Amino acid sequence: MKIIGVAVMLALCINANGQNSCFTVSKDPKNDEVVFSGRVTFSDLNSEPSFTWLKDGRDEYKPDDKATTFLKEHLQNYTFTIFMGTWCSDSQDMLPRLEKVLQTVGYPESSVTMYGVDRTKKTKNGESKKSRINLVPTVILQKDGKEIGRITETAHKSVEADITSMIKKDMAKTRH
């Protein structure tokens, strides 16, 4: 029976909210935190009891109303690819804020592709290499499969302000 439990903890491949997630669970050797490596969802992260940083950070964050009003109107034309480390303090700071913004604007979780990485910042199928990931978190905003912009490690102003700036810049390009 213990073997079955360990196998489930080591390789979770599930379908959550219509999205495939397939990740391994381990312990970080530097800080003993739980590490999710592979394709994950916000639902996966929220189901891990030790990730109190996610709920606490999301509940405490108050996104800017002007930016969220803009995002409600325009964000549906974009998708996200996110690389994050559950062990990483910058990821633990940004991910709850991003989740709060996405929830506030009614953005579907199915439009977010997220990968948990270990300290080497590698994914098992090479997604992090293809996306040139050196730091986490990295939040990549895309339109029609093309990168529009990214937030790396920390937001310049705020998550919602940075995403708004990327979209406005993209909209200005398409007008010309």
SSE blueprint:
Layout: H1 2-10, E1 12-16, E2 19-27, E3 34-40, H2 42-46, H3 52-60, H4 65-74, E4 79-84, H5 89-104, E5 112-116, H6 127-130, E6 138-143, E7 146-152, H7 159-175
Parallel strand pairs: 4-5
Antiparallel strand pairs: 1-2, 2-3, 3-5, 4-6, 6-7
Give a short synopsis of this structure.
The protein is α+β, with helices and mostly antiparallel strands and 176 residues long. The protein has helices at 2-10, 42-46, 52-60, 65-74, 89-104, 127-130, 159-175; strands at residues 12-16, 19-27, 34-40, 79-84, 112-116, 138-143, 146-152.
Tell me what you see in this structure.
The protein has 176 residues and is α+β, with helices and mostly antiparallel strands. The chain has a single domain (2-175), classed as Glutaredoxin. It is 40% helix and 26% strand. It is built from 7 helices and 7 strands. The protein has helices at 2-10, 42-46, 52-60, 65-74, 89-104, 127-130, 159-175; strands spanning 12-16, 19-27, 34-40, 79-84, 112-116, 138-143, 146-152. The protein has a 7-stranded mixed beta sheet. α5 (89-104) links the parallel β4 (79-84) and β5. The chain is globular and about 50 Å long. The termini are far apart.
